[in-house]
Amino acid sequence: MRKALLFLTFCMSLLACGNVYAQNNKAVAADNSKNRIEILYFHGRQRCATCLAIEKNTKEALETQFANELKNGTVVFKTIDISKAANKKIAEKYEVTWSSLFICKWENGKESYENLTEYAFANARTAPDTFKTGLIERIKKLIDAE
Length: 146
Prior knowledge:
This protein is an alpha+beta fold. 50% of the residues lie in helices and 20% in strands. It is built from seven helices and four strands; from the N terminus they run H-H-E-H-H-E-H-E-E-H-H. Helix 3 (49-65) crosses helix 7 (128-144) and helix 6 runs antiparallel to helix 7 (128-144). The termini are far apart. This is Thioredoxin. It comes from Candidatus Tidjanibacter faecipullorum. Residues 1-22 form the signal peptide. Keywords: Signal.
């Protein structure tokens, strides 16, 4: 009984984070010929404290460590509301059905990406400094690889 209750609680927390399927193509339309690092934060209509912490701490890390790159477009941060029908295609592309965090590298028109959702949920709210440090390190590694 206790396991069933824990499982039900876990499922409900996923729903609270925005377990929906819609996405917005316009929000992520970009020139794929430009080399850049994109950080994509997907969320639903309703967000839990951890979902909000992921967005907040991602923004803080980027604005603190990559202000020049954000300004010149070599680092791009996009927040995508998957509860909007216009975002359906991008959600399908990344197979996103609830709050998620991806780092995408666009080089010579080709994309590679890493799904950081598990890392983000494990650290963004309870260990924000660890989360920011890990995110910054991953982005720097991708920038240095260019």
